[in-house]
């Protein structure tokens, strides 16, 4: 009789654990089949060329949005690495600061630091950064050919081989 009672006391625990497992599995499945979030529409000016840059012009091929600020010296190594990985016409450099709109000066500072030319649009985009809830810097968003966000990353990141892997996954999405 003691054995039977002991077995019955474990039954609620087993049922609770099984239910928890099934709930987590359901969340995982829902997350796996969820539609990716689209990158917002934008039409902004390249601060270097005064040409219009739009989301529509980027669609058709994967691309990366790099968010930073002119004052963010700890962001330099991330731009250095991502610039070496992402093709010239597939990386957009966005400024997050309202009061700091000198994109030519920022580009020149970055080129001096990196000791090479940066053939990238430098775009003043504080409203876009706010819309995307970009609060940390640097902040990278990998966007697939359909214009959907595949992954994002905040903070210093200098592992070019890891970046290349994420880039390849984004291109393949």
Question: What do we call the CATH homologous superfamily of the largest domain?
Answer: Glutaredoxin
**Unreliable stretches, pLDDT < 50, 5 or more residues?**
none
Largest sheet: 5 strands, mixed
Spatially, the strands of the biggest sheet line up as 5-4-3-6-7
Query: What is the CATH C level class of the largest domain, in words?
Result: Alpha Beta
User: Pairing-aware structural class of the strands and helices?
Assistant: alpha/beta
Radius of gyration over alpha carbons? 23 Å
Distance between the termini: 60 Å
Q: How large is the count of helical segments?
A: 6
What integer is the average pLDDT? 89
CATH topology of the largest domain: Glutaredoxin
Strand residue percentage: 15-25%
What level of helicity do the residues show?
Answer: 40-55%
- Order of SSEs: HEEHEHEHEHEEH
Number of domains: 2
Shape: elongated
Write up this protein.
By secondary structure, the protein is of the alpha/beta class. It folds into 2 domains: 1-34; 43-172, Glutaredoxin. The protein is 45% helix and 18% strand. The protein contains 6 helices and 7 strands; from the N terminus they run αββαβαβαβαββα. The chain has helices spanning 2-33, 55-58, 76-85, 103-114, 126-131, 160-172, and strands at 43-45, 52-54, 63-68, 91-95, 122-124, 139-143, 149-154. It has a 5-stranded mixed sheet with strand order 5-4-3-6-7, covered by helices on one side. A hairpin with a 5-residue loop joins β6 (139-143) and β7. The radius of gyration is 23 Å and the shape is elongated. The protein starts with a helix and ends with a helix. The model has no long low-confidence stretch (mean pLDDT 89).
């Amino acid at each position: 009789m003691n054995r039977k009672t002991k077995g019955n006391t474990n039954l609620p625990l087993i049922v609770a654990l099984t239910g928890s497992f099934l709930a987590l599995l359901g969340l995982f499945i829902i997350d796996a089949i969820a539609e990716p979030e689209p990158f917002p529409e934008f039409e902004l000016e390249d601060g270097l060329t005064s040409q219009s840059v739009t989301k529509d012009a980027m669609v058709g091929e994967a691309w990366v949005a790099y968010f930073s600020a002119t004052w963010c010296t700890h962001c330099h190594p991330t731009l250095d690495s991502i610039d070496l990985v992402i093709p010239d016409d597939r990386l957009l450099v966005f400024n997050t600061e309202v009061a700091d709109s000198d994109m030519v000066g920022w580009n020149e500072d970055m080129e001096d630091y990196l000791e090479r030319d940066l053939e990238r649009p430098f775009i003043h985009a504080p409203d876009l950064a706010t819309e995307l809830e970009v609060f940390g810097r640097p902040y990278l968003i990998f966007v697939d050919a359909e214009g959907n966000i595949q992954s994002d990353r905040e903070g210093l990141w200098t592992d070019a081989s890891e970046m290349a892997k994420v880039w390849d996954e984004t291109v393949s999405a």
